[in-house]
Amino acid sequence: MVEYNHKESEVTIMEFNRELIKTDRNGSKHYIVTCSCPKCGGTGIFHYTYFNAQGVCFKCEGTGKVAVKEVIRTTEYEEKLNQRRLARQAKEREKKEIDREELINKVFPEGKVYITLGETYSIKEDIKAHNGRYDSFNGWYFTCAKDAQNFKTFAVDVKVASPDIKVTKNGYWITMVAVEKPREESKSQYIGNVGDKVEIEATFVRAFPIILVLVLFL
Ligand SMILES: [Zn+2]
Known about the structure:
The chain is of the alpha+beta class. Among the domains are: 2-73, no CATH class; 108-175. The chain is built from four helices and 14 strands. The chain has helices at residues 75-107, 124-129, 145-148, 210-217; strands spanning 2-5, 12-23, 29-36, 45-48, 53-56, 65-72, 112-116, 133-135, 139-142, 153-157, 165-168, 171-175, 198-199, 207-209. Strands 8-9-7-10-13 form a five-stranded mixed β-sheet. A four-stranded antiparallel β-sheet has the order 1-2-3-6, with no helix packed on it. Strands 11-12-14 form a three-stranded antiparallel β-sheet. Mean pLDDT is 77; it is low at 185-189 and 210-218. The chain binds zinc ion (ZN). Zinc ion (ZN) binds at residues 37, 39-40, 44, 57, 59-60, 64. Residues 37, 39-40, 44, 57, 59-60, 64 line the site of zinc ion (ZN).
């Protein structure tokens, strides 16, 4: 008789019988193991802590014994399975990378975003009508020059590397790095006149949920 601790309940399991059913082509041995019930510890009685009551164990139906299937694999086959799993995971990672690249290209077809400058509240509807999108950090922005042309914007290259993309339970989030918005009140030649489009070298610092953007695309 073999005794060991059940991995979940830490109840000591007593093994009464082990019957070899078959050895498959991978050399794995399939057993039916009769052992003491891990739920009631072989007593056939289960204590319901919540009700402060006890009753017939539902797992072994009061017999105190259960028959379980057990497969024991050879080390070689175990290693083979492990290799297969690693290969599968690598493939999945690769696919994810491709999906992300496609996502970036789809969301930012020009590789740029055009972030609005100045007061946008009063022209919000107009911006929306031109496919403008909003995020709490950058405010209203466009992803196509055509949409942005009637507004005062500055263009930023979207340099998103795959490692910068975080996947959350809400979908994809792009971590963009570093933008410094030109100051609205600046009257320097660099900024230009109202209506001009300004291009500066900058990067994003904030994330926004791409999944929302995608919904608009589909
Ligand atoms: Zn039981």
